[in-house]
């Protein structure tokens, strides 16, 4: 580890492409290469290549792996088919969110759990603690694993340019939240049709020793498809337009799944007990006191995390994320507001450094991609 934080296996590649770096979860990560606006628009119109190697990868295996994850997480993981993935939450006994994560079922008795960067050690330790009494092994593989993402309308074409011809049909027919274990650029990978941008795309898990080879091959394969390397700044604006929560902003130990709009993730139909069930199950049929909502600005000034949401001069909530939407051309934000002011169409103000600016509660996601073949 350097004095400024950990570096991914692709750090020198980022330097060579002129990246500006930022600390994120203890990692030195590319913030942008040239312009975050250019990178954002490229992902919406063509494709972007992201280094997400700061994310965690935890292998859970054993004869009771499915039953264990049903206890440890709030969703029903035991019913996932091999080759599919599921979004879920790791919650405290009090119902707060420790992390949101994706779990891939590699085989009948083997799962890959992917937590957020800064949470990876916490999640690994929490899973180990919860594994007591289960026939299961919890192995943190984060330090040995790199993760690349290709996101955007031309992402499939880029990936096909890396794949063997005999795998092309399987890649084209992959559904959202499905994955394949195959070779790209001659290297074994786990290729998942998942992402955090609101676009079609793929996330690619690979051993650290082959990450540079795949990164370089992807940029070469993407030359004719508009692919550019992208940093965390555009990743954040893309995910906000898509209405996707960010841990530490929209999710945390003081938020529960229902106020965050993630109630459907909590499975009370499964018979297994799970950590937090006693608190969360009664909340299933109760209107939360506050709700996460989307806000659209009437003017040009953007709301930022931590700003107060105001109605009739009194605070009724707090902004969790906000910025000018590059795609839509106006500022958008996510905020927790009192339930009485959470209905679509409600007019509120956001205190922008002492001045109330008008915003309206709107549906999320703010941006939804056009299906293939649709008129733009």
Automatic annotation (TrEMBL):
Any single biological process term in GO: methylation
Alphabetical list of InterPro entries matching this protein: GcvT, GcvT/YgfZ/DmdA, GcvT/YgfZ_C, GcvT_bac, GcvT_C, GCVT_N, TrmE/GcvT-like
Keywords: Aminotransferase, Methyltransferase, Transferase
Transmembrane segments: none
Function, as annotated: The glycine cleavage system catalyzes the degradation of glycine.
Subunit-level organization: The glycine cleavage system is composed of four proteins: P, T, L and H.
Name of the protein in question: Aminomethyltransferase
Organism whose genome encodes this protein: Arthrobacter echini
Gene that this polypeptide is encoded by: gcvT
């Amino acid at each position: 580890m350097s004095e400024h934080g950990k570096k991914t296996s692709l750090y020198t590649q980022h330097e060579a492409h002129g990246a500006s770096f930022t600390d994120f979860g203890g990692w030195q990560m590319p913030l942008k290469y040239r312009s975050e606006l250019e990178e954002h628009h490229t992902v919406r119109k063509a494709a972007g290549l992201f280094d997400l190697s700061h994310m965690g990868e935890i292998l859970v295996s054993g004869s009771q792996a499915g039953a264990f994850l049903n206890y440890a997480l709030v969703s029903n993981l035991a019913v996932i088919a091999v080759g599919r993935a599921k979004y879920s939450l790791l919650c405290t006994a009090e119902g707060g969110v420790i992390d949101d994560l994706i779990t891939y079922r590699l085989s009948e008795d083997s799962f890959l759990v992917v937590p957020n960067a800064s949470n990876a050690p916490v999640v690994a330790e929490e899973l180990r603690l919860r594994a007591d009494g289960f026939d299961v092994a919890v192995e943190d593989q984060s330090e040995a694993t790199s993760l690349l993402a290709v996101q955007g309308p031309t992402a499939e074409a880029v990936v096909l340019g890396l794949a063997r011809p005999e795998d092309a049909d399987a890649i084209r027919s992959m559904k959202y939240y499905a994955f394949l274990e195959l070779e790209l650029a001659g290297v074994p990978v786990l290729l998942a049709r998942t992402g955090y941008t609101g676009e079609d795309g793929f996330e690619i898990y690979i051993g650290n020793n082959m990450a540079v080879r795949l990164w370089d091959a992807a940029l070469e394969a993407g030359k004719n498809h508009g692919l550019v390397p992208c940093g965390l700044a555009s990743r954040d604006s893309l995910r906000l337009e898509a209405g996707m929560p960010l841990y530490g902003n929209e999710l945390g130990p003081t938020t529960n799944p229902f106020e965050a709009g993630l109630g459907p993730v909590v499975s009370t139909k499964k018979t297994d007990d799970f950590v937090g069930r006693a608190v969360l199950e009664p909340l299933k049929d109760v209107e939360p006191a506050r709700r996460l909502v989307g806000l659209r600005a009437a003017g040009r000034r953007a709301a930022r995390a931590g700003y107060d949401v105001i109605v009739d001069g009194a605070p009724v909530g707090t902004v969790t994320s906000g910025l000018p939407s590059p795609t839509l051309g106006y500022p958008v934000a996510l905020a927790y507001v009192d339930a009485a002011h959470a209905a679509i169409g409600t007019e509120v103000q956001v205190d922008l450094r002492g001045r109330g600016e008008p915003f309206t509660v709107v549906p999320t996601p703010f941006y939804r991609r056009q299906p293939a073949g649709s008129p733009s």
